Amino acid sequence: MTVTFDDNATAPADPSDSLFLRACRGERTSRPPVWFMRQAGRSLPEYRRLREGVPMLESCTRPDMVTEITLQPVRRYGVDAAIFYSDIVVPLRAVGVDVDVKPGIGPVLGHPIRSRADLDQLRPLEPGDVAFVDEAVRTLVGELGGTPLIGFAGAPFTLASYLVEGGPSKNHEVTKALMHSDPELWHELLSRVAGISSTFLDVQVRAGASAVQLFDSWAGALSAADYAKFVHPHSAEVLDSVIDVPRIHFGVGTSEFLPLMASAGADVVGVDWRLPLDEAALRVPGKPLQGNLDPALLGADWPVVEREVHRIVAEGRRAPAHIFNLGHGVLPTTDPDVLARVVETVQATGDSGSGAG
Ligand code: CP3
Protein backbone atom coordinates (compact mmCIF):
# COMPACT_ATOMS: atom_id res chain seq x y z
CA MET A 1 0.00 0.00 0.00
CA THR A 2 2.58 2.53 1.10
CA VAL A 3 5.67 2.94 -1.06
CA THR A 4 8.92 3.17 0.87
CA PHE A 5 11.78 4.97 -0.79
CA ASP A 6 15.22 3.53 -0.06
CA ASP A 7 16.90 6.90 0.19
CA ASN A 8 14.13 8.37 2.25
CA ALA A 9 13.56 5.50 4.65
CA THR A 10 12.96 7.83 7.57
CA ALA A 11 10.02 9.54 5.83
CA PRO A 12 7.15 9.63 8.30
CA ALA A 13 3.93 7.92 7.24
CA ASP A 14 1.92 11.09 7.76
CA PRO A 15 2.81 13.93 5.41
CA SER A 16 1.97 16.51 8.07
CA ASP A 17 5.24 15.65 9.88
CA SER A 18 7.28 15.89 6.66
CA LEU A 19 10.09 18.41 6.26
CA PHE A 20 8.15 20.00 3.40
CA LEU A 21 5.01 20.73 5.42
CA ARG A 22 7.00 21.79 8.45
CA ALA A 23 8.83 24.33 6.28
CA CYS A 24 5.50 25.48 4.78
CA ARG A 25 4.33 26.17 8.33
CA GLY A 26 7.41 28.30 8.91
CA GLU A 27 9.31 25.83 11.10
CA ARG A 28 13.07 25.91 10.64
CA THR A 29 14.16 22.46 9.48
CA SER A 30 17.59 20.77 9.79
CA ARG A 31 17.93 21.15 5.99
CA PRO A 32 15.63 22.53 3.32
CA PRO A 33 13.14 20.10 1.83
CA VAL A 34 13.66 19.90 -1.94
CA TRP A 35 11.39 19.41 -4.98
CA PHE A 36 11.40 20.87 -8.50
CA MET A 37 8.76 22.64 -10.53
CA ARG A 38 8.21 20.50 -13.66
CA GLN A 39 10.04 17.58 -12.04
CA ALA A 40 7.54 15.32 -13.80
CA GLY A 41 7.91 15.60 -17.53
CA ARG A 42 10.08 15.78 -20.56
CA SER A 43 13.49 15.70 -18.94
CA LEU A 44 12.73 12.12 -17.86
CA PRO A 45 13.18 9.28 -20.39
CA GLU A 46 10.63 7.17 -18.49
CA TYR A 47 8.09 10.00 -18.98
CA ARG A 48 8.77 10.25 -22.71
CA ARG A 49 8.38 6.49 -23.09
CA LEU A 50 5.06 6.45 -21.26
CA ARG A 51 3.69 9.46 -23.16
CA GLU A 52 4.52 8.05 -26.62
CA GLY A 53 1.45 8.46 -28.85
CA VAL A 54 -0.69 10.04 -26.12
CA PRO A 55 -1.38 13.80 -26.43
CA MET A 56 -0.39 15.87 -23.37
CA LEU A 57 -3.90 16.91 -22.32
CA GLU A 58 -5.27 13.42 -22.86
CA SER A 59 -2.59 12.00 -20.56
CA CYS A 60 -3.86 14.38 -17.85
CA THR A 61 -7.33 12.80 -17.99
CA ARG A 62 -6.03 9.25 -17.45
CA PRO A 63 -5.61 8.61 -13.71
CA ASP A 64 -3.27 5.64 -14.28
CA MET A 65 -0.89 7.77 -16.36
CA VAL A 66 -1.18 10.76 -14.02
CA THR A 67 -0.34 8.56 -11.04
CA GLU A 68 2.65 6.95 -12.71
CA ILE A 69 4.07 10.24 -14.08
CA THR A 70 3.67 11.99 -10.72
CA LEU A 71 5.54 9.14 -8.99
CA GLN A 72 8.39 8.93 -11.52
CA PRO A 73 10.48 11.83 -10.16
CA VAL A 74 9.74 10.81 -6.56
CA ARG A 75 11.19 7.37 -7.23
CA ARG A 76 14.12 8.61 -9.27
CA TYR A 77 15.23 11.55 -7.11
CA GLY A 78 13.80 10.92 -3.63
CA VAL A 79 12.48 14.50 -3.61
CA ASP A 80 10.67 15.63 -0.47
CA ALA A 81 7.38 16.35 -2.24
CA ALA A 82 5.47 15.23 -5.32
CA ILE A 83 3.68 17.66 -7.63
CA PHE A 84 0.50 16.50 -9.26
CA TYR A 85 0.96 15.84 -12.98
CA SER A 86 -1.53 17.95 -14.88
CA ASP A 87 -1.44 21.35 -16.58
CA ILE A 88 -2.79 24.81 -15.80
CA VAL A 89 -5.09 24.59 -18.85
CA VAL A 90 -6.70 21.27 -17.83
CA PRO A 91 -9.61 22.99 -15.98
CA LEU A 92 -10.14 25.33 -18.96
CA ARG A 93 -10.43 22.40 -21.32
CA ALA A 94 -12.77 20.74 -18.79
CA VAL A 95 -15.22 23.66 -19.12
CA GLY A 96 -15.16 23.39 -22.90
CA VAL A 97 -12.45 25.88 -23.89
CA ASP A 98 -10.93 24.80 -27.19
CA VAL A 99 -7.34 24.55 -25.97
CA ASP A 100 -4.53 22.20 -26.82
CA VAL A 101 -0.93 21.97 -25.65
CA LYS A 102 1.33 22.01 -28.70
CA PRO A 103 4.74 20.37 -28.20
CA GLY A 104 7.50 22.97 -28.04
CA ILE A 105 4.97 25.83 -27.99
CA GLY A 106 2.57 25.46 -25.08
CA PRO A 107 -1.18 26.08 -24.74
CA VAL A 108 -2.87 27.25 -27.97
CA LEU A 109 -6.55 28.25 -28.24
CA GLY A 110 -8.95 27.80 -31.13
CA HIS A 111 -10.86 30.98 -30.22
CA PRO A 112 -9.26 33.59 -27.97
CA ILE A 113 -11.50 35.46 -25.51
CA ARG A 114 -11.57 39.15 -26.40
CA SER A 115 -15.19 40.30 -26.19
CA ARG A 116 -18.22 40.08 -23.92
CA ALA A 117 -19.71 37.44 -26.25
CA ASP A 118 -16.53 35.34 -25.99
CA LEU A 119 -16.56 35.66 -22.21
CA ASP A 120 -20.19 34.56 -22.00
CA GLN A 121 -19.04 31.17 -23.30
CA LEU A 122 -16.75 30.62 -20.29
CA ARG A 123 -18.74 28.67 -17.72
CA PRO A 124 -17.79 27.79 -14.12
CA LEU A 125 -15.94 24.54 -13.37
CA GLU A 126 -17.96 21.87 -11.58
CA PRO A 127 -16.02 19.28 -9.54
CA GLY A 128 -17.57 16.55 -11.71
CA ASP A 129 -15.86 18.05 -14.79
CA VAL A 130 -12.53 16.92 -13.36
CA ALA A 131 -13.51 13.64 -11.69
CA PHE A 132 -10.31 12.17 -13.18
CA VAL A 133 -8.30 14.59 -11.01
CA ASP A 134 -10.13 13.51 -7.87
CA GLU A 135 -9.47 9.85 -8.70
CA ALA A 136 -5.77 10.36 -9.47
CA VAL A 137 -5.12 12.43 -6.32
CA ARG A 138 -6.80 9.83 -4.09
CA THR A 139 -4.70 7.02 -5.59
CA LEU A 140 -1.53 9.09 -5.32
CA VAL A 141 -2.07 10.03 -1.68
CA GLY A 142 -2.34 6.32 -0.86
CA GLU A 143 0.80 5.46 -2.85
CA LEU A 144 2.90 8.34 -1.53
CA GLY A 145 2.52 7.55 2.16
CA GLY A 146 4.51 10.16 4.08
CA THR A 147 5.57 12.12 0.99
CA PRO A 148 3.31 15.16 0.54
CA LEU A 149 1.47 15.80 -2.72
CA ILE A 150 1.34 19.39 -3.96
CA GLY A 151 -1.75 20.37 -5.92
CA PHE A 152 -1.65 23.39 -8.20
CA ALA A 153 -3.52 25.77 -10.45
CA GLY A 154 -2.68 28.57 -12.82
CA ALA A 155 -3.17 32.06 -11.38
CA PRO A 156 -5.88 34.22 -12.99
CA PHE A 157 -3.43 36.49 -14.85
CA THR A 158 -1.36 33.69 -16.40
CA LEU A 159 -4.48 31.80 -17.47
CA ALA A 160 -6.15 34.96 -18.78
CA SER A 161 -3.06 35.77 -20.79
CA TYR A 162 -3.38 32.45 -22.65
CA LEU A 163 -7.13 32.96 -23.08
CA VAL A 164 -6.80 36.49 -24.46
CA GLU A 165 -3.64 36.10 -26.54
CA GLY A 166 -4.69 32.68 -27.83
CA GLY A 167 -1.28 31.21 -27.03
CA PRO A 168 2.09 32.00 -25.46
CA SER A 169 3.06 35.63 -25.78
CA LYS A 170 6.27 37.58 -25.38
CA ASN A 171 4.76 41.01 -24.80
CA HIS A 172 1.20 40.20 -23.66
CA GLU A 173 0.04 43.16 -25.72
CA VAL A 174 -3.53 42.03 -26.42
CA THR A 175 -3.96 41.20 -22.73
CA LYS A 176 -2.61 44.55 -21.56
CA ALA A 177 -4.69 46.45 -24.12
CA LEU A 178 -7.87 44.70 -22.92
CA MET A 179 -6.99 45.26 -19.25
CA HIS A 180 -6.61 49.00 -19.73
CA SER A 181 -9.27 49.63 -22.40
CA ASP A 182 -12.08 47.59 -20.91
CA PRO A 183 -11.39 47.15 -17.18
CA GLU A 184 -14.93 45.95 -16.56
CA LEU A 185 -14.60 43.06 -19.01
CA TRP A 186 -11.09 42.37 -17.68
CA HIS A 187 -12.23 42.09 -14.07
CA GLU A 188 -15.11 39.84 -15.04
CA LEU A 189 -12.77 37.60 -17.02
CA LEU A 190 -10.33 37.35 -14.12
CA SER A 191 -13.09 36.74 -11.66
CA ARG A 192 -14.45 33.85 -13.74
CA VAL A 193 -10.98 32.38 -14.17
CA ALA A 194 -10.38 32.77 -10.43
CA GLY A 195 -13.53 30.73 -9.80
CA ILE A 196 -12.27 27.99 -12.12
CA SER A 197 -8.85 27.89 -10.43
CA SER A 198 -10.43 27.85 -6.95
CA THR A 199 -12.59 24.85 -7.82
CA PHE A 200 -9.63 23.06 -9.45
CA LEU A 201 -7.60 23.52 -6.23
CA ASP A 202 -10.54 22.55 -4.05
CA VAL A 203 -10.96 19.23 -5.88
CA GLN A 204 -7.27 18.44 -5.28
CA VAL A 205 -7.35 19.45 -1.61
CA ARG A 206 -10.54 17.51 -0.86
CA ALA A 207 -8.99 14.45 -2.49
CA GLY A 208 -5.98 14.74 -0.15
CA ALA A 209 -3.35 17.12 -1.57
CA SER A 210 -1.20 18.40 1.32
CA ALA A 211 -0.43 21.86 -0.07
CA VAL A 212 -1.12 23.92 -3.16
CA GLN A 213 0.91 26.14 -5.43
CA LEU A 214 -0.56 28.96 -7.49
CA PHE A 215 1.57 29.51 -10.61
CA ASP A 216 1.61 33.08 -11.93
CA SER A 217 4.34 32.43 -14.46
CA TRP A 218 3.72 35.53 -16.58
CA ALA A 219 2.83 38.10 -13.87
CA GLY A 220 6.34 39.53 -14.18
CA ALA A 221 5.22 41.15 -17.44
CA LEU A 222 3.25 43.65 -15.32
CA SER A 223 4.23 46.76 -13.39
CA ALA A 224 3.62 46.62 -9.65
CA ALA A 225 0.83 49.18 -10.04
CA ASP A 226 -0.99 47.17 -12.71
CA TYR A 227 -0.50 43.96 -10.74
CA ALA A 228 -2.00 45.59 -7.65
CA LYS A 229 -4.99 46.98 -9.49
CA PHE A 230 -5.82 44.38 -12.11
CA VAL A 231 -4.56 41.07 -10.74
CA HIS A 232 -3.97 41.02 -6.98
CA PRO A 233 -7.68 40.93 -5.95
CA HIS A 234 -8.31 37.92 -8.17
CA SER A 235 -5.27 35.93 -7.05
CA ALA A 236 -6.28 36.79 -3.47
CA GLU A 237 -9.73 35.37 -4.17
CA VAL A 238 -8.19 32.06 -5.27
CA LEU A 239 -5.74 31.86 -2.36
CA ASP A 240 -8.42 32.86 0.18
CA SER A 241 -10.65 30.04 -1.03
CA VAL A 242 -8.10 27.35 -0.12
CA ILE A 243 -9.16 25.47 2.99
CA ASP A 244 -6.69 24.16 5.57
CA VAL A 245 -3.54 23.55 3.52
CA PRO A 246 -0.46 25.76 2.98
CA ARG A 247 -0.44 27.93 -0.12
CA ILE A 248 2.70 28.62 -2.16
CA HIS A 249 2.43 31.67 -4.41
CA PHE A 250 4.95 31.66 -7.25
CA GLY A 251 5.67 34.14 -10.00
CA VAL A 252 8.48 34.68 -12.51
CA GLY A 253 9.97 38.17 -12.72
CA THR A 254 7.90 39.31 -9.75
CA SER A 255 10.77 40.41 -7.46
CA GLU A 256 9.65 44.05 -7.74
CA PHE A 257 6.30 43.24 -6.15
CA LEU A 258 7.10 40.30 -3.91
CA PRO A 259 5.22 41.89 -0.96
CA LEU A 260 2.07 41.99 -3.12
CA MET A 261 2.52 38.31 -3.99
CA ALA A 262 2.78 37.64 -0.24
CA SER A 263 -0.23 39.78 0.71
CA ALA A 264 -2.43 38.03 -1.87
CA GLY A 265 -2.49 35.18 0.66
CA ALA A 266 0.72 33.18 0.50
CA ASP A 267 1.99 30.99 3.31
CA VAL A 268 5.16 30.49 1.25
CA VAL A 269 6.51 32.89 -1.37
CA GLY A 270 8.15 31.41 -4.47
CA VAL A 271 11.18 33.35 -5.73
CA ASP A 272 12.76 33.11 -9.18
CA TRP A 273 16.54 33.16 -9.73
CA ARG A 274 16.77 36.92 -10.23
CA LEU A 275 16.62 37.80 -6.54
CA PRO A 276 18.89 36.21 -3.92
CA LEU A 277 16.88 34.62 -1.11
CA ASP A 278 18.54 36.75 1.59
CA GLU A 279 17.29 39.83 -0.26
CA ALA A 280 13.85 38.24 -0.73
CA ALA A 281 13.74 37.58 3.02
CA LEU A 282 14.08 41.33 3.59
CA ARG A 283 11.28 42.11 1.14
CA VAL A 284 8.77 39.68 2.68
CA PRO A 285 9.82 39.48 6.32
CA GLY A 286 8.53 36.50 8.25
CA LYS A 287 7.56 34.48 5.17
CA PRO A 288 8.94 31.05 4.34
CA LEU A 289 10.58 31.14 0.90
CA GLN A 290 10.82 28.66 -1.95
CA GLY A 291 13.50 28.71 -4.64
CA ASN A 292 15.62 29.58 -6.46
CA LEU A 293 18.33 27.87 -8.56
CA ASP A 294 18.40 29.12 -12.16
CA PRO A 295 17.16 26.14 -14.22
CA ALA A 296 19.44 27.15 -17.10
CA LEU A 297 22.50 26.70 -14.85
CA LEU A 298 21.82 22.97 -14.52
CA GLY A 299 23.67 22.63 -17.82
CA ALA A 300 26.87 24.13 -16.38
CA ASP A 301 29.78 22.07 -15.04
CA TRP A 302 28.96 20.33 -11.75
CA PRO A 303 31.25 22.48 -9.53
CA VAL A 304 29.27 25.54 -10.67
CA VAL A 305 25.93 23.90 -9.86
CA GLU A 306 27.24 22.65 -6.51
CA ARG A 307 28.47 26.11 -5.54
CA GLU A 308 25.08 27.58 -6.46
CA VAL A 309 23.24 24.99 -4.39
CA HIS A 310 25.34 25.81 -1.31
CA ARG A 311 24.94 29.55 -1.86
CA ILE A 312 21.15 29.19 -2.08
CA VAL A 313 20.95 26.96 1.00
CA ALA A 314 23.03 29.53 2.94
CA GLU A 315 20.97 32.49 1.73
CA GLY A 316 17.75 30.61 2.46
CA ARG A 317 18.70 30.51 6.14
CA ARG A 318 17.86 34.22 6.28
CA ALA A 319 14.18 33.29 5.87
CA PRO A 320 12.17 31.67 8.69
CA ALA A 321 12.06 28.50 6.57
CA HIS A 322 13.25 27.53 3.10
CA ILE A 323 12.03 25.01 0.53
CA PHE A 324 14.72 24.35 -2.08
CA ASN A 325 13.50 24.51 -5.67
CA LEU A 326 14.49 25.97 -9.00
CA GLY A 327 13.65 29.56 -9.91
CA HIS A 328 11.30 28.20 -12.63
CA GLY A 329 10.51 24.79 -14.13
CA VAL A 330 12.99 22.10 -15.17
CA LEU A 331 13.97 22.61 -18.81
CA PRO A 332 13.37 19.69 -21.21
CA THR A 333 17.13 19.44 -21.94
CA THR A 334 18.11 19.01 -18.28
CA ASP A 335 20.15 15.91 -17.47
CA PRO A 336 18.21 13.98 -14.79
CA ASP A 337 21.52 12.90 -13.21
CA VAL A 338 22.30 16.54 -12.43
CA LEU A 339 18.94 16.93 -10.68
CA ALA A 340 19.67 13.76 -8.72
CA ARG A 341 22.98 15.27 -7.56
CA VAL A 342 21.25 18.52 -6.61
CA VAL A 343 18.79 16.58 -4.42
CA GLU A 344 21.66 14.64 -2.83
CA THR A 345 23.60 17.85 -2.18
CA VAL A 346 20.64 19.66 -0.61
CA GLN A 347 19.71 16.64 1.49
CA ALA A 348 23.31 16.28 2.71
CA THR A 349 23.28 19.82 4.11
CA GLY A 350 21.29 18.43 7.03
CA ASP A 351 24.05 15.93 7.92
CA SER A 352 26.80 18.45 8.59
CA GLY A 353 25.23 20.08 11.61
CA SER A 354 25.58 23.41 9.82
CA GLY A 355 21.83 23.96 9.59
CA ALA A 356 19.93 25.42 12.49
CA GLY A 357 18.01 22.68 14.26
O1 CP3 B 1 5.63 20.47 -12.29
C1 CP3 B 1 5.30 19.32 -12.63
O2 CP3 B 1 6.13 18.41 -12.79
C2 CP3 B 1 3.82 19.00 -12.73
C3 CP3 B 1 3.22 19.15 -13.98
C4 CP3 B 1 3.00 20.50 -14.64
C5 CP3 B 1 2.91 20.62 -16.05
N1 CP3 B 1 2.56 21.90 -16.35
C6 CP3 B 1 3.11 19.51 -16.99
C7 CP3 B 1 3.47 19.83 -18.38
C8 CP3 B 1 2.77 21.78 -14.11
C9 CP3 B 1 2.79 22.21 -12.66
C10 CP3 B 1 2.49 22.65 -15.20
C11 CP3 B 1 2.13 24.05 -15.04
C12 CP3 B 1 2.17 24.95 -16.21
N2 CP3 B 1 1.75 24.71 -17.48
C13 CP3 B 1 2.59 26.30 -16.13
C14 CP3 B 1 3.06 26.98 -14.89
C15 CP3 B 1 4.47 26.60 -14.59
C16 CP3 B 1 5.48 27.18 -15.50
O3 CP3 B 1 6.28 26.39 -16.04
O4 CP3 B 1 5.53 28.41 -15.63
C17 CP3 B 1 2.46 26.85 -17.42
C18 CP3 B 1 2.80 28.26 -17.83
C19 CP3 B 1 1.91 25.84 -18.26
C20 CP3 B 1 1.56 25.94 -19.69
C21 CP3 B 1 2.38 24.99 -20.47
N3 CP3 B 1 2.10 23.65 -20.58
C22 CP3 B 1 3.60 25.23 -21.17
C23 CP3 B 1 4.27 26.57 -21.32
C24 CP3 B 1 4.04 23.99 -21.68
C25 CP3 B 1 5.33 23.67 -22.42
C26 CP3 B 1 5.15 23.61 -23.88
C27 CP3 B 1 6.41 23.06 -24.55
O5 CP3 B 1 6.32 21.98 -25.11
O6 CP3 B 1 7.45 23.74 -24.47
C28 CP3 B 1 3.10 23.03 -21.29
C29 CP3 B 1 3.16 21.58 -21.57
C30 CP3 B 1 3.50 20.72 -20.43
N4 CP3 B 1 2.95 20.81 -19.17
C31 CP3 B 1 4.40 19.64 -20.44
C32 CP3 B 1 4.37 19.06 -19.17
C33 CP3 B 1 5.11 17.83 -18.70
C34 CP3 B 1 5.20 19.17 -21.66
C35 CP3 B 1 4.32 18.32 -22.48
C36 CP3 B 1 5.12 17.44 -23.40
O7 CP3 B 1 5.48 16.35 -22.95
O8 CP3 B 1 5.32 17.83 -24.54
TrEMBL record:
Site residues (Transition state stabilizer), renumbered to this chain: 87
Alphabetized InterPro entries for the sequence: UROD/MetE-like_sf, Uroporphyrinogen_deCO2ase_HemE, Uroporphyrinogen_deCOase
Catalytic activity from the UniProt record: uroporphyrinogen III + 4 H(+) = coproporphyrinogen III + 4 CO2
GO terms of molecular function: uroporphyrinogen decarboxylase activity
Task performed by this protein: Catalyzes the decarboxylation of four acetate groups of uroporphyrinogen-III to yield coproporphyrinogen-III.
UniProt family annotation: Belongs to the uroporphyrinogen decarboxylase family.
One GO cellular component, as annotated: cytosol
Entry EC no(s): 4.1.1.37
Compartmental location: Cytoplasm
Protein name, per record: Uroporphyrinogen decarboxylase
Domain spans labelled Uroporphyrinogen decarboxylase (URO-D): 33-42, 150-166
UniProt keyword terms in alphabetical order: Cytoplasm, Decarboxylase, Lyase, Porphyrin biosynthesis
Organism domain of life: Bacteria
Chief location of this protein within or outside the cell: cytoplasm
Keyword Protein biosynthesis: no
Pathway: Porphyrin-containing compound metabolism; protoporphyrin-IX biosynthesis; coproporphyrinogen-III from 5-aminolevulinate: step 4/4
Quaternary organization: Homodimer.
Chain residues that bind substrate: 38-42, 87, 162, 217, 328
NCBIfam families: hemE
Enzyme class: lyase
GO terms classed as biological process: protoporphyrinogen IX biosynthetic process
